Amino acid sequence: IVFCRSLNKMNFITRLSALCLRKSKMPQRYRSSRRPAVPLGSRILTDPSKVFEHNMWDHMQWSQEEEQRAKDKAAENSLVKVQLEDQEILPEKKREQLKTEEKSSESIKKNSTSSFPHQDFPGMFEEGKEYWKNNYGEDSSSVQGQIYNKKQAKSITDSPQGKNCREQLGKLESFPGSGAAYRILEVGCGAGNSVFPILKVLCNTPGTFLYCCDFASGAVELVKLHSSYNSAWCFAFVHDVCDDALPYPFPDEILDVILLVFVLSAIHPDRMQRVVNRLAKLLKPGGMLLFRDYGRYDTSQLRFKKGHCLSENFYVRGDGTRVYFFTKDEVWNMFNLAGLTEVQNLVDRRLQVNRKKKVKMQRVWIQSKFQKPLLLSLSNPEETTKRHPYG
């Protein structure tokens, strides 16, 4: 039974990750009304003369010459750095104003959800309880994402480590999604391009709940105003992942999946590790973080002109937003330092073409899955430390 439950969970994560990567901010594959869409990863260019027959080709390998040209181009556009005094994207007063507005918004949300009446979420708590009953037994409950029956709970509360167990159980009723058995967080949800396809799946999966957050309050409001938004299955909130002092509207170690898609690249490299560390704490043991972002020497990196480079492989766009370009080694190091273990970490290389202009563009993304070790591994820190798989 335990094996089947774990298998079902992994299948759900696999389907969810595929869905999110299809609906993510990556360029959409060309779809003809006369033919079915080709699954990602299956369109291989075998005849170079047919390169302009489709908009995208999968699994493209670079020649040594192509890779060297990309390195030279990146080195060239990095020669002139943005002056330190000009590297503050937002004026200090404006940034402080935004933070004040966000904290005020968070305070209002906390006050309004402190007693979270069940009638605001019709059916959610009943379906969640039914899920627990069917899968873990009638006497089961959850503390910080862990499952215990009443006998286990008594032994835990009697132990020094679990002296606050009852208080934690009480707190579970005071946050959005507390009655759910399976919880997902999308970081950097924007206007909801991934949120609503995910919700379409979740609405048919009792006991599941989606959290989604973004730095921009306007984007979060758009999500809430969407006709498909339903507070029974979803909670959208404003959050700055770079602000370690800003709490999440739920406890640590309760999430089964975190989606981090084209978000980390917009954060200053000096802050990335702290952001990943904090997100790792939100995952329950066995939880999965799904990551996709820009890879080193992607076409968008090579297009930057001189004077847009902030630091090595870190640039500012014309609209003031920033972007970093990763290697899979860097990604592995960050998530490994956060205590997560690799399930998948690969470079996704594709050839995107403009058939009208006859232009070829080498796209590079990093796509990864990292998992929080189970409690058994966490009890022995040495077991979670792995040798770097890439040399």
From TrEMBL:
Tell me which InterPro entries the record gives: Methyltransf_12 (IPR013217), METTL2/6/8-like (IPR026113), SAM-dependent_MTases_sf (IPR029063)
Disordered: annotated span: 91-120
Q: Which SUPFAM superfamilies match?
A: S-adenosyl-L-methionine-dependent methyltransferases
Top-level lineage group: Eukaryota
Segments forming domain Methyltransferase type: 185-289
Q: Where is the composition biased (Basic and acidic residues)?
A: 91-109
Listed GO MF terms: tRNA (cytidine-3-)-methyltransferase activity
Report keywords, A-Z: Methyltransferase, S-adenosyl-L-methionine, Transferase, tRNA processing
Tell me a GO biological process for this protein.
tRNA processing
Please report which protein family the annotation says this sequence is part of. Answer: Belongs to the methyltransferase superfamily. METL family.
Q: What is this protein called?
A: METL2 protein
Q: Which organism is it from?
A: Casuarius casuarius
Q: Which gene encodes it?
A: Mettl2_0
